[in-house]
Amino acid sequence: MTEQILTTKQQHYLELLQLAESEQRSICQVAQDNQLDPSLLYSARTTVRRKGYLAVKSSTSKFTTVPVAGARDGRIKMKTQLANGQPVWLSVPPDHLSTVFASLSV
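Above: the chain sequence. Below: its structure as tokens.
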């Protein structure tokens, strides 16, 4: 695939997006520092990715799937974190796991 040419504004937005990534700052912070609406940079990110100037990240989620081996007592033991940051250790029989997760997600 050949890269499409960026407009002057898109080149400027690409530089700002690269700055945000290199300095590990959020797009919102960089937009505010440059008196821009953050939605402009988010839209520009989509455009420059589509044109091949930025790599497409496979996932923005911080969660990962981890295989869980069954314990000797048949219970699944794991640690998770509530939305407020509180860590929770669980030891749950496999047949109750969905019920426990449902109650934690409320």
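The chain is about 40% helix and 10% strand.
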